Amino acid sequence: MATVVNPILPQHVLANKQQSRISIAFIGPYAWLPKLSFNGSMVIGGMENISPSYFTDFSNPSAAVYLYWYDVAASLAVRDLNNNPDILPNTTITIKRFNTYDPKKSKNGAPTNIFVNSAGYAMNTIINQLYQDNEDVVAVFGDVLLSAIRFTASLYSYYQLPSCNPAAYSYPLLDRNLYGYTFQLDTMVGMGNALFLLLEAWNVKRIAFIYNMKDAASRAVSNDMISYIRSNGVEVLTVLDLNLGTTGTGLEFIATSLERVDARYIYVYGGPILTGNVYFGLARLVLVLT
């Protein structure tokens, strides 16, 4: 059997980059990961002992799987920087990890509820441990918790710490006045071009939209798509609210609206629960009608 190499193990650093040292803080719900040791909220050991084989169930990934591989990707980026003589010459980057999930909300290292609001615990971590006790931290990677990111991002901007989160994107974070030091890897604009190229390849000229009209990010992405494809000659047949799918009468309204405009191609944008309700609800209606 092939040996699984832990990508978080210490890596070689070029000799000419060891004159000075700075740190990047990895922020996230590290209480989700097993066998870690902490000093307050700071991870002080255990990451190097976690086998990647614990986190390879990609068919049904847990919240911890996402956190672990986000950490791995960022760790590999730091390794490459430390072995590049042209980027930050004479400087080694170290990683410091901080937990933003209240460990009292965890059981045996696993979150009891990944949607629990941990913003208060996260802000306490940033103020009392990251900022006050670790002056060598010059930037932040994280968080993945939607319940915490807007609060922690406001602190990063207040302390003028550049920050990037890998997945917990939020439309309000695009406000440069409030979050001038935060950027996101996921985008909420520019997707219209990608959708148009797909429709063009399929020779599709008519499409319907269903999206979560109560969610700012969903509105931003969907409106961007609708505006772009309309300007390029694609007819948007109807625009419906995904939240209608939470009731039987709402599902029937969606079904009749799509039937009325003869929609063959439908773009659905929203979270997995709402999207699943509409998708499988409409499937059941079709079965009943036929």
From TrEMBL:
Query: Pfam families in the record, alphabetically?
Result: ANF_receptor (PF01094)
Q: Does the keyword Transmembrane apply?
A: yes
InterPro entries on file: ANF_lig-bd_rcpt, Peripla_BP_I
Its domain of life? Answer: Eukaryota
Per UniProt, residues of the Receptor ligand binding region domain are 72-240
| GO CC, alphabetical | membrane
Q: What is the protein's given name?
A: Periplasmic binding protein-like I
Organism expressing this protein natively? Rhizoclosmatium globosum
